[in-house]
Every structure is written in C-alpha cells, then in structure tokens.
C-alpha cells in the first residue's frame, strides 16, 4: 500500500510503501472488541477488600459472662459492633487483570492500524517544528486540516517541546511507537504517523 507523505505544514514530501501485513488487514469487530476490553480492564486498579470478622487480629475469647452482666451477650471482640472489629458485609477483593493471547493482541493492533489506513491515516516526515509553541502548532494543524481528535505517533521518543505544546491544544495526543495501542488509535479521529513510527511498527511485527 503506497501513501503520500507530507510535512506538518501540508507540503508534499514524497511517498512511502506501507506493509500490507500491518496496514492492510481486514478489521474484525469481535477481535477489536476483545483487545479493547482487555486493555481497559487491565487499566483498572484492584478493588481493595475490607477486613471482616475473621481478618482482624483480636482475641476470640468470650470476654463477658453469658448472664448477669446487664449488657448484650457477645462472643469476641472481633464482632462488627465493636471499635476495631471486622467490617460487616464489606467489599471483597476483585482483580481485573484478565489475560489475552499475544497473537490476538498483535492482530488487534494491526486491525486498528489498518482501519485508520483506509480513510484517516496521515504520514508525515517528523514531528519536529522550528517553533513548537501552542499557538504556532494550532495554526499549523489548522492549515494541514487536522481537526477533531488527533493522535500523533513518533519513533523511539517524542520531543518534549512538541509533546507539551500538543497537549495544550486539548484534542491532540502524542506518544512513541512503543506505546501504540488499539484503544487510543480507535478513539481518535485521525492517526498521524512519522516515517520513524512506520518503521518501528513494521519492525515490531516483522522483526
């Protein structure tokens, strides 16, 4: 698959040949759903459990007489009615770290990239700008027709000045190729890859 490469200011910068095994896979809704669900579930923190009656470190000895004390009958100090006792019907620990086959994860990322390659993928030379300021960056994006939610993926690292200026715009996210994932790719309207990002992603699957 051959696509045109341009600079961020909209000027043409030649062509690039995309690997069809990465950018030409037919998307499947069930695979994408499984990968997105796995990714979002693993982002959730473990639900903490409360210490119940059997979990608190208190004596189990009957601390008062059964009769004659003038108070209610109690068996031990771990009862929920006492300060320091166990929680009655508290939350239980829940772990959301579900597993997913690595081949399915890789296939889902290929399908996400392929779905964007059909109609909303833009390849640029690099993310370097001479004036990486928020105002200048907004004008550059507007001239290039980059509207809506935009995801920029660069090679190994992203220049801090560009990343901070892009984050100030509110609708732009920037990440290195190593952080590319299905959820972030699908939730953005436009995907922008640098030449370095294309090489990294293709090497990730074919290396």
From TrEMBL:
A GO term, aspect molecular function: structural constituent of ribosome
Give me the gene this protein comes from.
rplD
Q: Which family does it belong to?
A: Belongs to the universal ribosomal protein uL4 family.
Native source species = Altericroceibacterium indicum
Indicate what this protein is called per its UniProt record: Large ribosomal subunit protein uL4
The record, for Gene3D superfamilies, names:
3.40.1370.10
Q: Which GO terms describe its biological process?
A: translation
One annotated Gene Ontology cellular component of this protein: ribonucleoprotein complex
Record key words, sorted: Ribonucleoprotein, Ribosomal protein, RNA-binding, rRNA-binding
- Outline the subunit composition: Part of the 50S ribosomal subunit.
- Enumerate composition-biased segments (Basic and acidic residues): 49-58
Job description of the protein: One of the primary rRNA binding proteins, this protein initially binds near the 5'-end of the 23S rRNA. It is important during the early stages of 50S assembly. It makes multiple contacts with different domains of the 23S rRNA in the assembled 50S subunit and ribosome. Forms part of the polypeptide exit tunnel.
**Segment Disordered: which positions?**
49-84
């Amino acid at each position: 698959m051959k696509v045109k490469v341009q600079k961020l200011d909209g000027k043409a910068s030649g062509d690039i040949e995309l690997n069809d095994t990465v950018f030409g896979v037919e998307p499947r809704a069930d695979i994408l759903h499984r990968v997105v669900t796995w990714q979002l579930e693993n982002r959730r923190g473990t639900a903490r459990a409360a210490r119940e009656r059997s979990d608190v470190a208190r004596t189990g000895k009957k601390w008062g007489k059964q009769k004659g004390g003038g108070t209610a009958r109690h068996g031990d100090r771990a009862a929920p009615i006492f300060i320091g006792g166990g929680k009655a019907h508290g939350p239980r620990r829940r772990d959301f770290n579900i597993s997913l086959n690595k081949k399915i994860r890789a296939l889902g990322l290929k399908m996400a990239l392929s779905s964007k390659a059909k109609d909303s993928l833009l390849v640029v030379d690099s993310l370097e700008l001479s004036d990486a300021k928020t105002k200048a960056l907004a004008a550059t994006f507007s001239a290039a027709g980059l509207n809506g939610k935009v995801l920029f993926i660069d090679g190994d690292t992203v220049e801090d000045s560009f990343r901070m200026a892009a984050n100030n715009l509110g609708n732009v996210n920037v990440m290195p190729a190593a952080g590319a994932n299905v959820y972030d790719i699908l939730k953005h309207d436009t995907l922008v890859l640098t030449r370095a990002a294309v090489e990294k992603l293709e090497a990730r699957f074919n290396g």
